[in-house]
Design a protein that fits this description.
Strands 1-2-3 form a 3-stranded antiparallel β-sheet, with no helix packed on it. Helix content is 23%, strand content 38%.
């Protein structure tokens, strides 16, 4: 492989890496959703509740049921 081919591949490959199959720019993947905490509460009267904290990117949401 000669140096001209190496230069051409070095210039073209990075330009194509950011494009989708139709040539449109790819949108970045969303950040993963992670479970940050899980809690269970049982009161003295026998009632119970469960809480889950979810984080996705900069947003954290707590859900209780």
């Amino acid at each position: 492989m000669n140096w001209r081919r190496l230069v051409a591949v070095g210039l073209i490959a990075p330009a194509l890496a950011g494009c989708g199959a139709d040539g449109e720019p790819q949108t970045p993947a969303p950040p993963p959703t992670t479970i940050t905490n899980v809690g269970v509460n049982i009161s003295s009267s026998g009632n119970s509740s469960v809480g889950v904290g979810l984080t996705r990117g900069p947003v954290t949401v707590g859900v209780g049921f």
